[in-house]
Amino acid sequence: MARKISRSPRTRWVWLALGCLVAVIAAALSVPSAVAAARDTGAPGQHPVTTTQPVETSVQVAPPTTPQQAPAMIAQQMQTAIQAASPGSTVGIDVVDIGSGAVLADLNADQQFYTASVVKLLIALDELKSRNWQADSDTAAELTRMLATSDDDIADTLWDADGGGAIVTRMADLIGLPGTQAPEDDAQWGETLTTPQDVVKLLDYLNDTVPLPARTLILSAMRGATQISADGTDQYFGIPDGLTGDVWAVKQGWMSLDDSTTLDTTGLVAAAPGGPLRYAVVVLTTQPADMSWSAAGAALTAGVTLLRTVIA
Fold it and tell me: What is the per-residue pLDDT across 189-201, written as a single tens digit (0 to 9) for each?
């Protein structure tokens, strides 16, 4: 039989205190191992952390694409493609989803370029407004031919009859086109100045604000743009050849001066047959004077083709 040892109350309290202290120390010593073990056996796919120091965890994600970054990137790619085919070209781009207002491509959008035949849209709008947006059959046929085949003779007649540069000023004031100016030489309507942003505003105005009869007339003419224009130029560069399969309504522009060649592709685009003309696409260029029409047009087509990544 074990010998019973009697202890005083004080002795019992000393032993109890020592026991508690030992337990606390043992628990404290076991914490790092337990924490390390818990981190080492983390969820699948996590890297183990073996340090006993506090660890600040974070999830690494790609920075969000801002509305300014993506348009600039796409536009830079388009400019690179155009300049590779036509070195020395100056390029202005504005591509907008006019339904949502989202900018899809943007470069030099507030820089002025010559309109060349794109100004015929302003000539047509001014003529229709003067008739309370209602055209008789002869006027409708005349405007359709001017826009669809880019007929210069009709443009000359209407330009002279309706006030020349005053047409540009009236329409710029009506629509709100701050970068659009009448030509210095009033006889040269092709030298009207505009910006990619202004052409987008013009297209949006045409698609949304112009009364239906006049809107239908102009958009039908733009949808029916012939491949060979009245002066024999192949005008399917840019949007028509670059976005084949998409539905478009275009007004192209081209002009040769002593020191430069102007080539512009502008219009409204639907991503699929039967879809709305929701995208305004504007690419204006000033190219070297010695560029052939075919090479200059191919340059625009190379740039516009890249829009397939954003128009859907």
Answer: 999 999 999 999 9
